[in-house]
Amino acid sequence: MSASSLKSETIELMGKLGVSQAALEGGDLAVHSPTNGEKIAEVKTSSAAEIKAQIEKAHEAFKVWRTVPGPRRGELVRLLGEELRASKEDLGRVVSLEAGKIPSEGLGEVQEMIDICDFAVGLSRQLYGLTIATERADHRMMETWHPLGVVGIISAFNFPVAVWSWNAALALVCGNSTVWKPSEKTPLTALACQAILDRALAKFGDAPEGLATMFVAERDGGEVMVDHEKVALVSATGSTRMGRQVGPRVAQRFGRTILELGGNNAGIVCPSADMDMAVRAIAFGAMGTAGQRCTTTRRLFVHESMYDDMVARLKKAYLGVTIGDPLKSDALVGPLIDKDAADNMNKALESAKASGGTVTGGERVDVNGDASYYYRPALVEMPEQTGPMFEETFAPILYVTKYSDFDDALEMQNAVGAGLSSCIFTLNVREAEKFLSAVGSDCGIANVNIGTSGAEIGGAFGGEKETGGGRESGSDAWKAYMRRATNTVNYGTALPLAQGVSFDIE
Ligand code: NAD
Fold first, then answer.
1. Which runs of E-coded beta strand occur in 212-355?
2. Which residue of 378, 392, 441, 451 sits 20 to 30 Å from the alpha carbon of 225, by its own alpha carbon?
């Protein structure tokens, strides 16, 4: 496919999704497809004044939306889910075009959006509070959950659409308004999502204007949202570097954050592991999405008794995996997002070699010429956990280290800054349960006989330590999008004070 035909495919697809050609031309932000490096659009970024006005409008919309009953708010998200179902193929293709994901992963991301909409619709009737036993006679104590305000969503390039929907679907049923700043690397998918949402809003009929909007901007646009006092919650997904900046700035004004930051995820392969299962899970976890998932498997600790077998099988997988243009082939590994990602990968591999690592793969593969960055995933045997293993390099590099003692493996797995996802392969119940226990994995996600990546939306998603501590998606993650009020009601005729305190005035 030539450059011009990729651009025309973009225009055609975006048109089908509801974004006009005019919105893709003449703007100040160039959009390049990582599949071949070609410029496929020029979109307009918003100024600080425009962003502030959008936030003010969202705040006005919030004042109306918070009074709409939860199940009615759920209806909007149900309509969004329907629109997403209708647009799944096209939006999935734009994800492949703009973020370079292979087709099944592009479509999978849209499916995740549909799933969270379904979840949120049910949730819209389940925003429960507790009733609590009170120490005073003729009193009732309870919790009420109220809408919070404007939710500012900042998202990363690697899940350009799903992360928005995790936040927006929950925020909207919880009675909030939303303003979204997508990654500057993936504005087209965001424009498409807005067009899809606008159709749902039109069908819904009477939602307040400015309820859920987005803007295109670089980091400075995100900062405007971070600092704005009318943004009650900033839900920011991206690198730990970004979180270190965003967290304190929002805290400074006592705003709330959900931080979903980097991962440096590990797996442990024990002597009893089902090797076929482990190899498949690790291959997907480490090479899938070209290593550009926050939950990508980056470190592997293999028991010495299984090490040679595991490394031999992984080498075969690494040397055999298909690498190619996700728009034209059924290859399993697509491109890195850009040159910076490639430079970071090369740097990490050099550093690993300097630390005694032996690299299999990791070389550049010419798929579509110099302007795109396709790499064979790298398997790096490391004599011990050292050097680049302590960092998240957002590229397909898997470090493998041998262990002999289970507790040492656990310690190595926990000895990094990030705490997002982890897994163990074992048929030994003692090892499995210890891994899941208070002295086991310190991550927000700990799996047994399942890899580190590919979470379902029903569970709470997020991690500890430098991953930021936030939770999104399922379980009770919705509570972060609401404010809690404790209500005590006295239906008696006396006024007993708590803790038996007396304060009698005549
Ligand atoms: P990034 O940190 O470079 O950018 C993420 C977003 O933050 C972008 O929209 C960017 O414009 C914005 N941003 C950056 N600095 C900002 C600031 N100071 N104020 C306001 N906004 C700011 O990340 P990326 O390269 O797009 O994505 C890759 C990273 O995201 C990896 O570290 C990955 O692990 C992480 N990630 C985490 C999760 C998770 O759920 N934990 C999910 C996806 C990606």
1. 212-214, 231-237, 256-260, 265-269, 297-303
2. 392
Distance CA 63, CA 176 (A): 9
Give the pLDDT confidence of 115-165 residue by residue, as tens digits: 999 999 999 999 999 999 999 999 999 999 999 999 999 999 999 999 999
126's tokens: 């389940």
How far is residue 257's CA from residue 263's CA, in Å, rounded to a whole number?
18
User: What CATH number labels 48-261+468-485?
Assistant: 3.40.605.10
Per-chain mean pLDDT for the chain: 97
- Looking at residue 186, its amino acid is T
pLDDT for 506: 81
Hey, is 130 helix, strand or coil? coil
For residues 112 and 158, what is the distance between their CA atoms, to the nearest angstrom?
14
pLDDT at 435: 98
The DSSP bridge partners found for residue 490 are 139
Looking at the DSSP bridge assignments, the partners of residue 181 are 154
Distances (CA, A) of 314 to 278, 310, 389, 440, 480: 10, 6, 18, 26, 40
Give the start-end residues of each E strand in 333-409.
358-361, 364-365, 374-375, 378-381, 397-403
Residue with tokens 């490639």: 342
State the catalytic residue, choosing from 38, 109, 260, 392: 260
Tokens at residue 491, please? 């239906």
Q: Mean of the pLDDT values across residues 60-77?
A: 98
Residue holding tokens 């708590």?
A: 498
- The top-level CATH class assigned to 265-456 is alpha beta
415 Cβ neighbours under 8 A, 6+ residues apart = 385, 390
Q: Residues 6 or more apart from 28 whose CB is under 8 A from it?
A: 42, 44, 45
In this prediction the pTM is: 0.97
Q: Tell me the CA distances in angstroms from 152 to 126, 127, 149, 320, 331, one per residue in order.
A: 23, 21, 10, 43, 36
Domains in the chain: boundaries: 48-261+468-485, 265-456
Q: Is the CB of 184 under 6 A from ligand 1?
A: yes
Residue bearing the CA closest to ligand 1, atom 22 = 219
Q: Is 260 a catalytic residue?
A: yes
- Does any ligand 1 atom lie closer than 6 A to the CB of residue 242? yes
Confidence category of residue 3, pLDDT binned at 50, 70, 90: very low
Q: Is 268 in the pocket of ligand 1 (CB under 6 A)?
A: no
Contacts of residue 126, defined as CB under 8 A and 6 or more positions apart, other chains included, come to none
